[in-house]
Each structure stands twice: as structure tokens, then as C-alpha cells.
Amino acid sequence: MVPQLMRILFVTANRLGDAVISTGVLDALQKRYPAALFTVVCGPVAAGLFEADPRCERIIVMTKRRHDRHWLDLWRDCFPTRWFMVVDLRGSLLGLTLRARRRVIVRGGRRPGRRIEQLGHALGYRRTPMPRVWTTATQREQAMRLLPERGWLALGPTANWDGKIWPAERFVELAKALRPLHLRPVVLYGPGDAERERALPVLGALPDALDLGGSPSLGEVAALLMRCTLFIGNDSGLMHLAAAAGTPTLGLFGPSRASEYAPAGRMARYVEAPGPEGHAPISGLSVATVLSAARKILSEKDVSVSCIGAD
User: Is the pTM of this model over 0.85?
Assistant: First the structure.
């Protein structure tokens, strides 16, 4: 008799940053159940994050439809399968209506503490599962061709809303201040005209910068980040991707909540603008503060997540 395959349904976020944070939980589940095959449900922006995962049997891209009909479509797609486990990080009713031996449903709502720790606790992990990325050999070879030597400073000057964006001229000033350390800037940003428009002031003021934004897949971006000496960027999905890729990462926070969404990784740090969390304008974050933090992270071989005090 052929044993039934063990299949796990993993429902994660639409947004890239939240999806990256969830990769630690997915990796922990894959280690806990080494014989299982995984189906990942996510939004279109995050789908490329899981393409190179060898344990990912299928990716279901959930595109929003009116009247929440995308959830009905997903239920119809998933109902024929008898799942060993359903892990729903969206806190929906889906997991309660599918045939599954086990169900883990993580409810939403504002809770104190970092999001990555909340997910780990919800699934019963004592140690916080750190995010990770998957890349193919082809993606790593392509990254090596584009960034053949070391000494690259990755800049992430965009974000999903303008309140989180550090002024472009400060990114330029910062990159120039780091030139004596033999760091050449690489500018990364997401797909679409709006992202490129936000990155253009930095690209225009740094003629030696390499423009690698806009079109690469998430796996290719992760492979590029692995080639970089340091990433400095706004609170964004790209920031979380850099930290998950193992790149020394410095996240810049203004009105967004570092207490919940600080970058997580072995070599990740962040700096905050002065003022009450959730209301501090990022324009209050000085170049001097970011430069000091960048120099510190470059001087350390192993950096755990912590906040460096702002002005």
C-alpha cells in the first residue's frame, strides 16, 4: 500500500514584508516535518519569494476580488485535498472549513512585541524562527556576474508610502560619506513606475551607482543582496528581504513601528527618528545618526537585532 503524502497548507501575507517575516515559521515547519510537501498561499507581490523553495510543491497566488470572492476561490481550490495541517497566518475561516488533521490559525489584531516573535509563539516555538530566503544556482550565478567583486552598498530608498521614506538627498549624502570605505552604491527598488520615480533622485545624484531595481525576481534580488557588504534602507519588504538573506542590514524607521517590524536576522539593526513611536517623522533622522550606525555594523562580525539611539 502506497502511503498518503503529507501535505501542509501554509497561508501567508499579501505584503512582501510580512511574507518575508513568515518564512522563518515555514522553515521551522519544514524542519519539523521533513517528509511533508507544502502549498503556499500568498499575494502576487510575495509569490516569487517561495519559487526556489524545494519543499514548496505549489504556490497559490491569491489576487483580491470584490466581495472577498478570492477566499471562495481559494476554498474551492483547496477543499479537494485532505491536508495533514493547515497553517493560516491570516486568521481567516478557511482553516476551519477544510479537511485537515491539524489546524493552526493565527488571529490578527494589534499585539505588543515583534511580529516575528508573535508568529513563533503562536506555533509553539520557544526560539524565534528567523526568516530565510531561497535562491537557485542560476540566480546566484547571475548575481555574481552583476556584482563580480565585493564592496557593494545596497540602498533601498523607496517604501510603500511616502511617510516611511527617508529624504533622497540624505541617502546621497550617506553614500558619499561611506565612499572612503570603498563601498560602491547599488540602488534597489520594487517593480512599477511609482517605485522607480521614488528611486530616481538617488540614482540621478549618484552617477556611479548601479541601478538594479524594478525588474528582477525576488530570488534574484535576494541573490544580489547576498553579494552586498551592507544594506541601508527604509522600512519595507526589501529591508526584510535583505535581513533574511543574511546581509548586514540597517533599517530606517520614522512613523512605522520598529517595535513590531524591526528587521530580523543575524546581522540586522535599525535606527529610529526621535519622537513617539508611530508618529515620529522620518525627516527627524539625521545622516550623522545613520552613518554612525552603519560604521558600527560594518565593524562587527555578528550583530543581533537592537536599536541604536537616535538624536
Answer: yes
